[in-house]
Specification:
Elements: E1 14-17, H1 37-47, E2 56-59, H2 66-69, H3 75-85, H4 91-95, H5 111-128, E3 134-137, H6 158-168, E4 173-177, H7 184-189, E5 196-203, E6 227-232, H8 238-256, E7 260-264, H9 282-293, E8 299-302, H10 309-323, H11 330-334, H12 359-379
Parallel strand pairs: 1-2, 1-3, 3-8, 4-5, 4-7, 5-6, 7-8
Helix pairs in contact: 1-10, 5-6, 8-9, 8-12, 9-10
Length: about 375
């Protein structure tokens, strides 16, 4: 089991998953993914008194071993991934997505994703065994990787592996993905199954990688109705986003009655992210986290996208404050003793300031989202008795 110091965590209910080993690994400078985000998030929440605390603890973890990784990824792919990391590249590896601009070849390309996956699987283990109620792995969330395909900065799909561990424990899993990119790898893994329901809110594939995640993608066979997609128009803003989440995700979650919820809390939907086109503030992510806590289920949270590092880190710190029950704590949100964060030009603390959304922008977003919601109510809701 990829956990350390489990015994001293036995009373903790909310766990922040982190290991100093994460600091050893980096993607190439030319790649938008910055692996320092988890460590920076940890530093902020510790400075604000949000870690450790009553029933709140930190837990280190080990890399996922081959026996764990091969629950989803093929042996052939993992061999190619290790070989490429060691400098041995071939045409077969390139066909698997290794060596593309999104998934470059570099020395840490196996060790880092295996470690990140170890964190997510460790969180699943904590929930499956009842050792924690909430677990957060900000270093996880690589939802694009396939069984033998790297894509979208993702080499190992820790989310699928975490969901599989929970299913192995006999749990019914709801996966909610609020990353700005469609979680195509997770959807594909469970597309014909109903023991994992996937619900993804993401910028429309008409405009953004990976070009999937449309309303008609609802699963097949036994899984028909258990894959749900809410493609979002360019410019989607907080109120519209949270409204769509309330109208689609919450009713389906209640109808599905999961034993456990897995949330990918990507922050690349935030306004100003260089790879996307939404107008969200992190207040929307905090609102979604509150709604998910209202489902009263064990919760595994991962990181995900987020390519404006300071905004991403502040967003994850805010989500952590919500998970700890301090999402409205003014001391935590503004900085203890009036000390403001140094990593951002916005001195208001963890919460973003509201953005001005003009009436014509609201109207365009609202009309497109309303059509999407009605489509899902017509095609998916009846499958679940709604």
């Amino acid at each position: 089991m990829p956990l350390r110091n489990v015994a001293i965590m036995s009373r903790a209910q909310t766990i922040f998953l982190y290991t100093d080993e994460l600091e050893r690994f980096r993607y190439p400078e030319s790649n938008p993914l910055n692996t320092s985000r988890a460590g920076k998030t940890r530093a902020i929440v510790r400075s604000l008194g949000l870690l450790p605390g009553q029933d709140v603890s930190e837990l280190a973890f080990e890399p996922a071993g081959r026996n764990v990784l091969e629950r989803f990824h093929t042996r052939r792919y993992l061999d190619a991934l290790q070989a490429a990391a060691g400098g041995r590249r071939d045409a077969e590896g390139f066909q698997m997505g290794l060596g593309t601009p999104d998934c470059p070849v570099f020395p840490d390309m196996y060790r880092y994703p295996a470690l990140a996956a170890g964190g997510t699987v460790a969180g699943a283990e904590l929930l499956a065994t009842g050792a924690a109620r909430i677990a957060f792995n900000p270093s996880g969330g690589y939802h694009h990787a396939g069984p033998e395909t790297a894509a979208g900065f993702c080499y190992i799909n820790d989310v699928v592996l975490g969901c599989m561990r929970l299913v192995d424990a006999g749990m019914r899993v709801l996966f909610l993905d609020i990353d700005v990119h469609h979680g195509d790898g997770v959807q594909a893994a469970f597309y014909d199954r109903r023991d994992v329901m996937t619900i993804s809110l993401h910028e429309s594939g008409k405009h953004l990688f990976p070009g999937t995640g449309f309303e008609h993608e609802i699963g097949e066979g036994d899984g028909k109705g258990y894959s749900v997609n809410v493609p979002l128009p360019v410019g989607t803003y907080d109120e519209a986003y949270v409204r769509a989440f309330r109208q689609v995700a919450i009713p389906l979650a209640r109808a599905y009655q999961p034993d456990v919820v897995v949330l990918e809390a990507g922050m690349d939907g935030l306004a100003g992210d260089p790879l996307a086109h939404l107008r969200l503030t992190n207040n929307a992510h905090a609102d979604v986290a509150e709604l998910i806590l209202g489902l009263d289920r064990p919760l595994l949270v991962t990181g995900g996208g987020g390519y404006h590092v300071e905004n991403t880190v502040r967003g994850w710190a805010l989500v952590w404050s919500v998970l700890c029950g301090r999402g409205t704590d003014s001391d935590a949100l503004l900085g203890l003793g009036g000390v403001m964060m140094e990593s951002t030009e916005w001195l208001g603390g963890l919460r973003d300031r509201a953005l001005v959304i003009h009436a014509d922008e609201r109207a365009a977003v609202d009309s497109e989202l309303a059509r999407t919601v009605e489509t899902l109510k017509r095609t998916v809701f009846p499958i679940h008795g709604l």
